[in-house]
Structures are given as structure tokens and as C-alpha cells.
Amino acid sequence: MLLYGMWSALRNLVLSEGFPPSPQFEEKDVPDLSGKVYMVTGAAGGIGFELAKILYSKNAKVYIAGRSESNGANAIEKIKSEYPRSDGALEFTHLDLNDLATLKPAADAFLAKERRLDALVHNAGVLRCPTSWRTAQGWDVQLGTNVVGPFVLQRHLQNILVETAKIAPQDSVRVVFLSSIANHISPHGGIDYTNLEAKGTSPLSSIDFIDGVIKYAQSKAASVLMAQAFAQKFKDTGIIVSSVNPGNLNTPLLRHNVLASYFAFMVLYAPRYGGLTELFATLSPDLNQSNNGAFVAPWGRIGSARQDLMDSVDNGEAVKLWDWIEDHTQGF
């Protein structure tokens, strides 16, 4: 199955997701966002920073959520200097997706100040960390940061999204889960529950590189399934959800992969393009109730994840994963 997944990823890299057509939804297509409120995790750098810039430039209020207050402050200063005429606002929200105990306080601090949330973009993520790294609650750090943390944060902000959807224009309230082309090399059906039961400890833990790749791929397949589960569980709320492959990008996500960083200049694109892909998921009218749960491909178009992964959705695997994480994160 791994070989099939690698072939699937290679095919998509060559034919579709690796060399995308020009963006069809850019800054010029974004209306005035005065009065709108957005939260983007991991927006102090990379593609989240690019998305936050665009939203702020259109007069939105944007919460940059992350671990480092100094990085957040630097990002806010850079964005404000680039768009001095914006009537929007930028604020930093401290949270650590590696520590579930930080997420409710972060959500509560946000809810104490805001009465609406027009989109929650789960942009933060990690790639190919050392396999020995664990979250505060003992999860593999890729599974914890890319899947479990966003799930818990989503749970704490779900109600305000529902309430916003009641007063906002139809289909405008969004939730975005960050996936990757790596979903194509995840286990058959996307998820290995034996692996999950061990909080992401793999039988291949002794082979660091292979184990790290498989863990990352599973976390990105999980993001696809979470979007599908959300669309099913909250179909009557008016919220539009998607999972996004932002593209193959030269961003700080590669900081734990020296080889990829070395060759990045040959095969990877600038972070702005990933920001445009997330922008499509956050604002494009092409996403609506008819395609809720969609997989968004670079640089902003409806795409598709691996076929057996989508087949598993029809067999209830997406909701199964959602319920599994719900059960294993009680108390946070």
C-alpha cells in the first residue's frame, strides 16, 4: 500500500498538485472585510502569515495564534508596516497545539473579546520532526500538532462559529484544516488505529526517516477525514469546511528536513502561493453547501484526495476518527 501511495503522490505531483495552474482567486478578488473576524494558527510565518496579510489588507480583524509572543509581535509589526492604511486589526493569541491544556484558556480569552468568528484556519503544523518528540500529553508531535490540537481548539470555538453563521452571509463562515500532498502516502483508508492507540508510536519507530514520513502522511490524511466528518456532523449549521493542500512550498515547515531544505529552491514555490490556496478555502464563493468538506488543491481549486481515502469516508471512517479523537481528548 505504501508503494501505491507513493505512486499516487508522484502522479499528483507531476500531473496536478505539484505544478498547479495559475491562481484564480487572489487579493484583487477579495471584497472589503470590515467587521469580519478571523483566527489563523501558526500565522507568525510561512503561509499563515501570507493569509493574515491579505485578510488584514482588506480591513479584517485577524488573530495570529501561536506559541511565541515575540514572533507574533514581529509578524504584526511587519504586516502593519506593509499595509499602513488598513482599517483592520491584528492581535496575538497564545496557544500551544503541543499542549492541549493551553487551548481552552486561549479560546476563552478570544471569546471574552469577540462575538463573532468568520473563519478558523488550522494552518499551524509540523513536518518530519524527530520521532522521539512527544506533546505534553504524550502524543507523537506530528499527530498532536497537526490533528489532535486543532481538533480540541475547534471544539472550544465551535459555538461561536455556529452563532456567526446565523448572522453572516450564506456559506461565508469557514473552517479550514491543513492537509498536504502527503495524504497520498498515508495507510490504506488513511488511518492506522493501532498506531493511534499508541498515540502515534509506529512499528517502524527504529527507522527514523520512514517512521517520520508515515506519521506525517497519516496526520495529513486525518485532516482530510476531519473536514469530511465536520461536514457531516455539522451539516445544518451553515458552516463550510474544507481540507487544503497548500502546495509544495519553501517555508519554515522544512526546518527539520535538511535534505528538502537544500533542494527547495529547485522544486518548491514561494509561500504566497500557499496563502492564496488558503485564501480560496477561506473566502472563495466556489465553496458552498454543495461541496462542503471539499479537498482544495493548489493554488485554489476543488481537487481530490486519494480514492481509497475518500471511499473510507463513505464507509463511516471520517466520523469514526472524529469520535475517536473526541473520546481521547476528554478533559481538555
Please give a structural write-up.
This protein has 332 residues and is α/β, with parallel strands linked by helices. It has one domain: NAD(P)-binding Rossmann-like Domain (Rossmann fold, 3-Layer(aba) Sandwich). The protein has helices at 2-15, 46-57, 69-82, 103-111, 141-167, 193-197, 208-233, 258-267, 271-283, 307-314, 317-328; strands spanning 37-41, 61-66, 89-94, 119-122, 174-178, 240-244, 294-297, 301-302. Helix 4 (103-111) runs parallel beside helix 5. The longest helix has 27 residues, at 141-167. Mean pLDDT is 89; it is low at 258-266.
What is the element layout, followed by pairings?
Elements: H1 2-15, E1 37-41, H2 46-57, E2 61-66, H3 69-82, E3 89-94, H4 103-111, E4 119-122, H5 141-167, E5 174-178, H6 193-197, H7 208-233, E6 240-244, H8 258-267, H9 271-283, E7 294-297, E8 301-302, H10 307-314, H11 317-328
Parallel strand pairs: 1-2, 1-4, 2-3, 4-5, 5-6, 6-7
Antiparallel strand pairs: 7-8
Helix pairs in contact: 2-3, 2-9, 4-5, 5-7, 7-11
* Count of discrete alpha- or pi-helical segments spanning 4 or more residues: 11
Distance between the termini: 35 Å
C-alpha-based Rg, rounded: 18 Å
Residue windows where pLDDT falls under 50 for at least 5 positions:
258-266
Helical content (DSSP H or I, runs of 4+):
40-55%
- Name the CATH superfamily classification: NAD(P)-binding Rossmann-like Domain
Q: Give the tally of β-strands.
A: 8
Q: CATH first level: which class?
A: Alpha Beta
Structural class: alpha/beta
Main sheet overview? 8 strands, mixed
Strand content: 5-15%
Number of domains: 1
What is the spatial order of strands in the main beta sheet? 3-2-1-4-5-6-7-8
Round the mean pLDDT to the nearest integer and report it: 89
CATH topology: Rossmann fold
The appropriate CATH architecture is 3-Layer(aba) Sandwich
What string, H for helix and E for strand, traces the elements in order? HEHEHEHEHEHHEHHEEHH
Shape: globular
Family: Belongs to the short-chain dehydrogenases/reductases (SDR) family.
Keywords: NADP, Oxidoreductase
InterPro entries: NAD(P)-bd_dom_sf, Sc_DH/Rdtase_CS, SDR_fam
GO molecular function, one term: oxidoreductase activity
